Amino acid sequence: MRHLLQCFACLGILGSLCAGPLAQKAKPAVGTTVINSSYNLLRNREPEMTADEHALYTQVVQMIPLQPEFALQLLESLVADDKPESPAFEFVLGSLYLERQRYEDAAKRLRSATERFPEFVRAWLNLGILHYTRGHFREAEPCFARALALGDRAARTYGWLGYCLESTGRGRLAEAAYEQAYLLDRSNVDWAAGLMRVALEAGEWRKAELLLEEMIRLQPAVVQPWLLLASVQQHQGRAIEALATLETAARLEGAGGDVRLQLARAQAAAGLRSEALENYAELRRTHPALGAEHSLAFARSLVAAGRLDEAGGLLEELERNPGEGRADVVARVRAMWLEATGRRNEAVVAWDKLVQRHPLDGEALLQLGRLQRRAGRPGLAALALERAMRIETVQLEATIEQANLALDQHDFAACAGHLRAALALQPSPVLQAQLDRVTLLLESHENTASKH
């Protein structure tokens, strides 16, 4: 028996770190080298096999990596008798079941090994890995915790425990486990990523930023940490730094068209229209598979930049083949284009058609109300704006537009009422100054009326 479990230390399935969106977390890997270290027992620290078990095992141990199914059949032949197996043999058998993805059999054997030899560290570890591999994180967590309490000090065990705690909503405990894993193995990006996610969840933006910088140091050619860093910088109001980060990400070898598209949108939002247009144009040449998504953004930017002829030509192309589910978005950009070209009545018709198809479209209602107001149709403007005021996403803008409409008609009392409602939604010194001016006009108007 003198050696038996050295290859069975941790059994599981290798999974790679998949970088994803900010809210998405990648499951740290359970490596096959860990699996294969479970086939030798640790002398004086773990239970021993019986003589019969050891005699059989020494005959099949070398064939486990090469012929695992045949080796498993030979080991199972010992189970057929009436004698109970030793915890050591159950551990080896359960770990081999786990490697072959026979999870129920593995769970039965590993659980029995831990019950019969409660200080069997690696049996607890492999039982935890079994649950972890299957996504049963609440069941895996106490197994990893028990292994650590019994003396396991591997960074991976702390890291897997952290992932289980994070996945079950216990962020602060997860942070402590990830920190220990990261302290023991600072080259593992999984543990830095876990700490970063916990920091984001807690709103600790600066800490998340430092961890993302560390992830980039470890894997400078991986695109996703750069994108996450840009998002964190943007959230902190550092738009210029975020743009610089996105530009770096777009130059990486693994960056796809979606990264350049994100950069173009950020440039457009920052008012860097020429840079955004350059990137959109490049996307149309190099990534036609992105289809209408970037073409629509390109058309919108062209309208905003006043390049209306180019925008009109692109819109005609999109209207012929808008792509699945994008016809309304194309119609929205067309309505903006009509307004920008001075064809106000046609723009009104375009927005009205959108409202008819989508009665709760706040942007369409708001734009329709604004255009009706500018066209001198206050009644129709008021109808659209009243509906828009009931939609949370545009409630503030619609309320301010109603105030402007009332001011156009010298209805100072109604204007003041709408301004007060807007201030209740979002306090603003500009709105307050406007209300003060309207209040003076209202008082003057009332004094004049009282004299007559």
TrEMBL record:
Transmembrane segments: none annotated. It comes from the Bacteria. InterPro entries: CellSynth/LPSAsmb/PSIAsmb, TPR-like_helical_dom_sf, TPR_rpt. Keywords: Repeat, Signal, TPR repeat. Residues 1-19 form the signal peptide. TPR repeats lie at residues 121-154. The keyword Repeat applies. This is Tetratricopeptide repeat protein. It comes from Oleiharenicola lentus. The lineage of its organism: Bacteria, Pseudomonadati, Verrucomicrobiota, Opitutia, Opitutales.
